[in-house]
Structures are given as C-alpha cells and as structure tokens.
Amino acid sequence: MPASSISHDDVICTNYVRRDSALVEASDFPKASILPTRSASQQHSVRFRTNAAVREIENIGDSNENQVSDLWYSHKEFESIKSSSRHSLELLTSGRALEGDDHTMRGLECRTPAGYERRKRNKFDAVCAVLDEQDRQYMLGIQDPEAIAEAYILESEHCVEDALDQGMADEEDASGLMY
C-alpha cells in the first residue's frame, strides 16, 4: 500500500511555542482504501467516553505578558532549542561526543535514521490494523468501535512497553540527580 507524506508545521502561537508541547515531525500515513459509500438510510453517530478527563487551558490572549513569558518559549528560544538538539544529534551519532551533561539522545531517538524508520513503521502498522478492522466490519455489516480500539491497542502494545521502560530508566536517572 503506497504511503503519502503528510507534514505538520511547528505550532507557533503569536511568536510563542508551548513549553510542555512535543515537537511535531513529518509523518507518513497510508492512503485509506476507498470503500463504497454508505446509503443515506444508514445512521452515523459519535459517542464520547463518560469518564473523559477535561482540563481547561487559558487562552494565550487572556494572559498577561509575565504569564506568557513564564509559560511559553519565545520563537527565538524555540529556535535555539531546535538548533542545540540538531547539534547534539549530529555530534552523538557521528561519535564526536559522548552522552553526558552537555549532550543527550533522550528525546531525539526518532531523529536518527533507524529511529525514524521504526517510528514510521509503528505508525503505519497501527493505522493498517485500524483500517483492516474497519474493512472487516464493513464487510460484515457491523459497527464495533471497541474492536477498532482493541486492534490499535494490540498493534501498538510494544510501543507502550518501550515507553514504560524508558520512563522507568528516566526515573532512575532522575533519582540519582536528587539531593
């Protein structure tokens, strides 16, 4: 199945980028297979979880200048962080620097060729699992959102395990920094 490249731009809000937001990178998603359209008599519905957590986030326009500078990186700060990350990645992958206080691969794993391919494959496999389940349900004439979710969960389970392992390693590293 051919993949088309969909790129996302860095999210910048009036010269600021949220400090706790993740960098968005170009991603490859498979083209959805074209299925016959549903007839007008078939109902569409949207359901929301009853236990969804909702958290209000103050609009940047409602914040004073001090709050904005405390919570958001300026565009200049954000560009500096990106440049420093690229520099660390180049030094570490070329072997010209060792991981330590000045340079770390943490958070840059998917920026290496192998990490990029692994992440792309994980996304592709997860999307395919969902599309396959949707195709199966379409052919059987059923709608089972829980089965779609389960297909995704099963396909991406190893990603969750990897993230938990990395989180435990980060916790261990951080506990060594506490005094």
Q: What does the model show?
A:
A two-stranded antiparallel sheet has the order 1-3. A two-stranded antiparallel ribbon has the order 2-4. The longest helix has 31 residues, at 145-175. The protein is mainly alpha-helical. Helix 3 packs antiparallel against helix 4 (145-175). The chain has four helices and four strands. It has helices spanning 65-71, 75-94, 113-140, 145-175, and strands at 3-6, 16-18, 27-30, 72-74. 2% of the residues are buried.
Produce a short descriptive summary:
This protein has 179 residues and is mainly α. The chain is built from 4 helices and 4 strands, in the order E-E-E-H-E-H-H-H.
Index terms:
48% helix, two-stranded antiparallel ribbon, disordered N terminus, mainly alpha, 179 residues, single chain
Number of strands: 4
Q: What portion of residues belong to β-strands?
A: 5-15%
Q: Write down the overall mean pLDDT.
A: 77
Discrete helix count? 4
The arrangement of helices and strands along the chain is EEEHEHHH
Segments where pLDDT lies below 50 for 5+ residues?
1-38
Class computed from helices, strands and strand pairing: mainly alpha
Order of strands, main sheet, comes to 1-3
Helix content: 40-55%
Topology record:
Layout lengths: L2 E4 L9 E3 L8 E4 L34 H7 E3 H20 L18 H28 L4 H31 L4
Antiparallel strand pairs: 1-3, 2-4
Helix pairs in contact: 3-4
